[in-house]
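Title: Prediction job returns without error message
Component: structure pipeline
Severity: low
Priority: P3
Assignee: unassigned

Description:
Job completed but the reporter wants confirmation the result is attached to the right record. Sequence as submitted:
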Amino acid sequence: MSRSKPHKSQPTAQPQAPPAPEPVGHAAGRADLLALAALALLVLALFRATLFQSTHILGGPLTDMASQFVAWRKFGFDALARGDLALWNPYIFGGEPYFGGMQSALLYPPNVIFLALPLAAALNWSIAVNLWLLGAFMFAWARLRGLSPAGAFLAAAVVMLGGTVTPHIYAGHLPNLCTMPWAPLILLGIDGWLDRRRVRYLLIGMGAVAVQILAGHMQYVFFTAIAAGLYALFRLIQRRDWRAAPGLLLIYPAGAALAGVQLLTAIEASSESVRGGPVAWEFIKRFSLPPENMLSFLAPGFFSRFDAYWGQCYFWEMELFIGIAALAMVFVAALSREGRRAWPLWAALAATMLLALGQHTPLLWLLFKFVPGFDMFRGYSKFTFQASLFLALLAGMGYDSLRVRGPSRALFAALAIAGVVLFAGAAQIGTKSAKDWSELMVAQVKKPEFQSPSRDSINKPEFREQAQRTATRSLLIAAVTCAVLAGLFYRKTRWTNRALLGLALAELLVYANTSMVTFTMADLDLDKIKAAAGPGLGDRRILMMEPPNNCMLVELENVWGNDPYVLRRYAEFVTWANGGDPNTATQYVQFTKDVRGNALLRLGEFIMKPRREWIMHESQFPSMPHLLLAGKWRVSASRDEIFPALTGGSFNPWREAFVERDPGLGAPQAEVSMVTTADAGNGSARIVERSADALVIEADVLKPAVLVINDAYARGWRARAADGPARYEVMPANYWMRGIPLKPGRHKLILEYVPRSFAIGLWVTIVALGLYAAGWFWSVRADKGRNAAASRP
């Protein structure tokens, strides 16, 4: 029986490649759901010791979780639980914007967990939930790109547990970990629009941008926008379909509009902070990825970690580890036909890695000089996170290619050679003399970006010996891993792929588990700090440098803090008062122990912990009162005139004030006095009620005077009468304080922080949300119509 052959005039049917699977949430199959559940199990396995208890908090005891974000989350969400959206933080830096400072993340949807759980549990669950979201969104993007459930699962695990993410758990970088998950969802939106031309993918991208902004770390938002823009450009070039470009150009403006209430408030706050406007090159170039840290792809422990780290910068932003097995999968992708066709991924990977190198290439200097935005942030090593997304996707592609085509002998040879080289390196380092090894470490310490707390320990022989052993062991582990992989690649069996996936997961879990360090609330010594301050502090501030933000947990006002949004006026004065150049003011200030200028900060006590015990030292200078009525004033907007007068002897800030424009009170009176008693010469004033964002002040004014409020000034402060429509003008006093001109009479006024940008941003968000909902409604109806048309015979 002969087979029939197609007629020559009839074209032979060509096999059609199956369409890329829909992302999770649209047509997820059982395998997809199992993979997402497996990602959840990975998270539970990693956080097994912390999620179901309420005492231990993830993060190192001396890192940002303990020094900033425990207090940050408690302050903001305690206020939100009372029905107040905290716009101002009165406890640090003489007061500063809180909601506008971004890292408050009060509107970030997953942070609702802080309203439901105790603080310690909420902090741990917040990290765990965001880590799973990162994996889930990475999985969804990989599935949209056509990866199998297994390949997409590997890509998700690589991102979740790799060196660009999990070290931030130890560092306590809560906003970083909340901002990261939304990056792969933005990339999913780009690919979905380009490949399927469905509006819903643009809407997904817009929503992801908005939530990423709300998560609170604008640097990751900016870096993700750069990476997403480059990737979109490369994909447009690949497809040569420029008609899709207008849709892509809508993603970020629409996302920004959805988060308008947060973004506009933050822009105003930033414009008044030390981060407002361009930053010096010396600051921008800091924390670039050192080229020698490329070694962390294979041996992340070479430079040690935690307090024993002796590499440049901080290890939590300088590690690239994705697992040697996953890295091998990337090379498999490079050798495959599918991998070579995915050149936009390789181009985006190369571009983000080049940006991560920062000052170590000429590119950053050119961008700093000529491209807006690149003169606002430091820490360009953070681009390694965006690079890891492209690496992870390539690893998943390599895994899928390996399942189809089997292992490569070329890769077997490469792994075998790498194993030999790593073993030889371990042998060479392990046998180095103490003198040669010491010279190597000393050379490292002399590099300009050596930041490690091990600086003082590096001269100790035992520290150097331990570092040598750790470096040797790290290279040996890498060598053994390469040898095991080479064995797996030598000959394929039915267990090869499972063994490779198991090895990749084991590497990542072991690595990620090293960042699971915890501390407890008891470690913060809150009771001892409160006791050290004592009952005699009254309305004065303290100076507590380490950790400064914990004053918020005991409701003490600190003259300093830990946050990049310190107001510029305040930072400049503190820098001047302590002998520094106000033109170089940042969030880092070296306080002189006790100088007259610090008394103008309302500073009353120094609280220190020199020998594990909190002690208090009283300032030798009487601190300025919280309120005073100055019947004498000088008009000057010159910082260089005001500062010498405030800290010199010719001007008495207890009796007069500098204002920057005419207060409209006529000629100043000759006699002035402090408002500490009811019979003061100019009258009296007192605070009768206070909250985070407002003060209620009663004043009996006998003569025209400027009410000077010893708190940091910002443009968003407004004053109105408590019992009528009358409004008062709030102006800078003494450059950084608040001043309100008052005419004779009795006044009861409400001073509140309500920046105009917040009201404008709220309306922008409301309108944008309405349009966004309409877009989803239209998109769903269009999809239903398209599906109905396709189902007709």
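Comment from assignee: result matches the submitted record. The CA atoms of residues 135 and 160 lie 6 Å apart.
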